[in-house]
Specification:
Elements lengths: L1 H20 L3 E10 L3 H9 L1 H7 L1 H5 L4 E5 L8 E5 L6 E10 L3 E10 L3 E12 L2 E11 L4 H7 L2 H22 L1
Antiparallel strand pairs: 1-7, 2-3, 3-4, 4-5, 5-6, 6-7
């Protein structure tokens, strides 16, 4: 019985230490320069329906069910999705729009696990084009903090943002 208590105490201590050293916040973002004017880029990025056209996750589940609520491109518009294991289930709502500068969404993931993140697009006029930064950020809460000690969010999701931005660039420059 004494050994069992020591083992249990050791596990609790290990979990507490891992939680203390784990990153409490995350932010992943990528940039690309697009040869299109900022007005056109901004208007397209505001559209949740257009985002689905170049989304890297849409390709991973062509049978994904997608539903839209509200006026697309305006604060309060929502897209909901239900997909396979790779895509999961969740919704995205436009929360903030600063014309030709910034778009912020709230991402509410329901499956494979519940979490909430802030998605964002930052735009910057560069000569005849537009620099687009796409990313998301949030807080790691227990027990996810323990997983983050062993997982690199940037490596896990960064490539998806790069793929999406590349597809967006191709899409918007041919539009």
């Amino acid at each position: 019985m004494k050994i069992l208590l020591f083992i249990l105490g050791g596990i609790i201590l290990l979990v507490a230490i891992l939680h203390l050293i784990a990153p409490k916040n995350y932010q992943i973002d990528r940039k690309i320069v697009i040869s299109e004017n900022i007005d056109t880029v901004f208007k397209s990025l505001c559209s949740l329906k257009e985002q689905q056209i170049w989304s890297p996750w849409a390709v991973r589940d062509p049978k994904m069910k997608v539903e839209y609520n509200g006026i697309d491109g305006e604060i309060g518009s929502i897209t909901k999705w239900v997909g396979n294991k790779e895509v999961g289930e969740g919704e995205q709502e436009i929360k903030k729009i600063e014309p030709n500068d910034y778009i912020e969404t709230e991402l509410r993931f329901l499956k494979p696990f519940k979490s909430t993140s802030v998605g964002f697009f930052k735009l910057k006029k560069i000569n005849e084009g537009t620099e687009v930064t796409w990313g998301f950020k949030g807080e790691n809460k227990f027990p996810m903090t323990i997983m983050m000690v062993f997982m690199d969010m940037d490596k896990a999701i960064g490539k998806d943002f790069e793929e999406g931005l590349s597809k967006f660039k191709t899409y918007i420059e041919k539009k």
